[in-house]
């Protein structure tokens, strides 16, 4: 994806007749992300099936209605029909061609000079009347560890003399995550219980997590997959990416530290994972590509991970932000407190390299698979992507404007991730929010047997 | 599951009018496992959709045909209708009641004294005319590590003084695996490439795996799931298990040792995982339950993993076997060589404990999820469940009757896992085979872009 991929849909001066889109922080006409939504239906009424939509300003354009409107033909129509489904796996399985054709048509229809405004207006659903859903049926979820500052900062907590392990600059480190526990932004969850140890007691106990944390990550949605046993070459890898989202890899640090040897994190990261609702396409992010830059002295990527185009423009330049609003702050109407301002520039490996590496032993990807980047921390405390880092493992207290303090996330806290792509000469776009509130741990008791 | 769960379907004297079932090593009438099959259709003809079946001797009873035959009513009919689908997720989502009702009806219909033999005979498909398919759509696959002898033997290779880590006897150790790369028995695969290091060169390279291994595991299929955030209590956990299979967790040891720090195995175990085709139900295994036995001095399970019924009868007493047939042996008609004879008795945690632990932080299980037990080695070399153990990390050579030698799996080798449940007073049953041949590594070259 290079400057050659810029076209009229990236024109920063282009307005939309959907007025809330013009100057919209996240969703101007240059973005046009895809997602799944349902209308809120008043109690007692029926309807409101989940279906695909495009976010434009404070509205969602109903792609099922559009696919039936007669306004589309050819490839764009085929893509809109796939997007009429309750999951977008088939839309993204179609690949870049249909996805781009639909983008170009949507841009035309939503542009200020289009003549079909009246017809299209009836297909708009105000965001306040809609509920977003998980956009994909996730076959598999993989979490990587390519935020090098996070790896160094966390490594320093545990191995001060040797923070980065010998494989880090050779292997895009990752592990398999849990697909069932990925939820869309806005789904709250209860503090997890787990087996953990507490100071002065060598025997573990089963109790609510005491050190609940967030992790600021970029999510990658996979489009077309590969055949089992057939690695995807780095030259083709970007074509398998359908789009991007924000991802909060909620982590229970005390459960994690007790369970993770020797096979890695398990229940400490599979109770709840939050993703933002809108799939930000590679087309929308074309103006915000960046070169990958390895510090001098680092090894070159091995040939199966090395490609000139990817090294020159395979990175992303997107600002990332973590906001905390405690229950008291929300009740008092206090604005959320920014815990961190970071960037996707802190990825040591490109998203194309993740695709090439993941398939390099023959593992098959399928449309709708999800990758997390790993925590994308900057090098300083104001850019750290987790409380583990910000509080130095729970030792340092964060003071909030409300007078409250935090080391880890408390019940009632709302964590919101945001992303913003800004560059001179381009229209700024965002990802929308990736948000959840932590509810108190459930009271455990008898649950009914599935047999009874 | 105790002796109270034994009924007339376990009568070891019960014959079937399907003559190949009587005395069948794996599939007498007392077994009645469920699976998915397609008929082999000669080239040029159509038909043969995937659907559920019950294995009986050398035949498969077509459950779709049975569901349409008028021979079933009520709960058994509902279960057979669910089993008519190309995946069995919905059958097992129905839980133990419908699954048992169908078993009891199948036992009656296939018993020697049944009057519907002619009608039923038309629904039998000879195994030689059928291809088995993966029985479930796997939402998530989790691999545990509960074979304590394997943990000790492998731990000793890397940490001679301290083979078992401090958490082992408290936590059923597990990690998330890859669902997309689980394949049914009979699907062969190519030796994986991967990033690995070789002696005398500190820099890694990307090349075909040099130390390909099998792992002998019990597979567990999940039936009814749980709501996100709601742990399954140990008392109810067994009710969430739909059945069992054999699982070969193929492992690339050189890729594994290089990639696994700090987050655990990733591509070294996600290129191909083999499961046996037939789901052996808890009902079929009722005569083969065993007490869990912890060595004196080991800690008691924490309360969320402790339940008297499970401690008394939550274990399984099933013999496990690993067979190797090299290409030369198969060409010469030489019988496969037994590499290992082990048992499910070597599990430190019961399958119900795995269910309770997996959901203990709120992770939701879904029907069709798959667990692997981890490698189930016995304490001696003739019972080791991997070549890593048998060859002491590649140092000791295994001599085969053909005159060939092995340290790890070579191209052309066929590895077959088998299982057999035998007890005095019960009809012996088996699991069928879990088999794959390792093909040479693919020649990597340009693969087409999904866009082209």
Summarize it.
The structure is a homodimer of 452-residue chains. With 452 residues, the first copy, chain A, is an alpha+beta fold.
Features:
homodimer; 11 helices; seven-stranded mixed sheet; 26 strands; alpha+beta; globular; about 450 residues
- Contiguous uncertain segments of 5+ residues of chain A: none
What is the alpha-carbon Rg of chain A in Å? 22 Å
Which oligomerization state do the chains in this entry correspond to? homodimer
Give the percentage of residues in beta strands of chain A: 15-25%
Largest sheet: number of strands, sense, barrel closure of chain A: 7 strands, mixed
Number of helices of chain A: 11
Q: Pair with the most extensive interface? A: A-B, 82 and 83 residues
Structural class given helices, strands, pairing of chain A?
A: alpha+beta
Tally the beta strands of chain A: 26
Strand order of the largest sheet of chain A: 7-6-21-13-14-16-8
Helical content of chain A stands at: 10-25%
The coarse silhouette of chain A is globular
pLDDT average of chain A, as an integer? 95
- Intertermini distance of chain A: 56 Å
């Amino acid at each position: 994806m290079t400057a050659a991929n810029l076209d009229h849909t990236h024109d920063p001066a282009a307005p939309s007749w959907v007025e809330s889109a013009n100057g919209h922080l996240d969703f101007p006409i240059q973005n046009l992300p895809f997602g799944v939504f349902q209308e809120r239906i008043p109690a007692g009424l029926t309807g409101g099936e989940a279906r695909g939509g495009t976010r434009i300003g404070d509205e969602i354009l109903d792609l099922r209605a559009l696919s039936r409107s007669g306004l589309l033909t050819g490839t764009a129509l085929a893509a809109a029909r796939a997007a009429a489904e309750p999951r977008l796996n088939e839309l993204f399985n179609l690949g870049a061609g249909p996805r781009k054709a639909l983008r170009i048509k949507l841009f035309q229809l939503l542009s200020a000079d289009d003549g079909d405004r009246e017809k299209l207006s009836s297909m708009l659903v105000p965001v306040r009347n809609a509920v977003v859903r998980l956009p994909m049926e996730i076959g598999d979820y993989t979490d990587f560890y390519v935020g090098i500052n996070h790896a160094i900062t966390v490594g320093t907590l545990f191995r001060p003399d040797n923070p980065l392990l010998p494989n880090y600059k050779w292997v895009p480190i990752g592990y398999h995550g849990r697909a069932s526990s990925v939820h869309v932004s806005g789904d709250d969850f209860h503090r997890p219980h787990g087996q953990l140890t507490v100071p002065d007691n060598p025997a573990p106990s089963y109790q609510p997590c005491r050190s609940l944390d967030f992790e600021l990550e970029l999510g990658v949605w996979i489009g077309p997959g590969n055949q089992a046993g057939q690695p995807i070459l780095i030259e083709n890898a970007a074509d398998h990416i359908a789009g991007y989202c924000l991802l909060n890899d909620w982590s229970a640090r005390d459960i994690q530290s007790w369970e993770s040897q020797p096979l890695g994190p398990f229940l400490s990261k599979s109770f709840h994972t939050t993703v933002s609702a809108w799939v930000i396409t590679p087309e929308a992010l074309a103006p915000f590509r960046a070169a990958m830059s390895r510090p001098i002295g680092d090894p070159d990527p091995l040939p199966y991970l090395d490609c000139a185009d990817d090294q020159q423009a395979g990175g992303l330049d997107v600002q990332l932000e973590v906001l905390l609003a405690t229950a008291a702050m929300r009740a008092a109407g206090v604005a959320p407190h920014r815990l961190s301002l970071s960037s996707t520039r802190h990825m040591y490996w490109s998203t194309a390299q993740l695709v090439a590496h993941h398939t390099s032993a023959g593992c098959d990807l399928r449309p709708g698979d999800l990758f997390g980047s790993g925590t994308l921390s900057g090098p300083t405390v104001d850019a750290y992507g987790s409380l583990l880092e910000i509080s130095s493992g729970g030792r340092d207290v964060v003071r909030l404007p409300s007078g409250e303090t935090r080391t880890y996330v408390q019940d009632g806290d709302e964590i919101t991730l945001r992303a913003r792509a800004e560059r001179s000469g381009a229209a700024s776009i965002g990802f929308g929010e990736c948000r959840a509130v932590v509810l108190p741990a459930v009271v455990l008791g008898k649950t009914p047997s599935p047999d009874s």
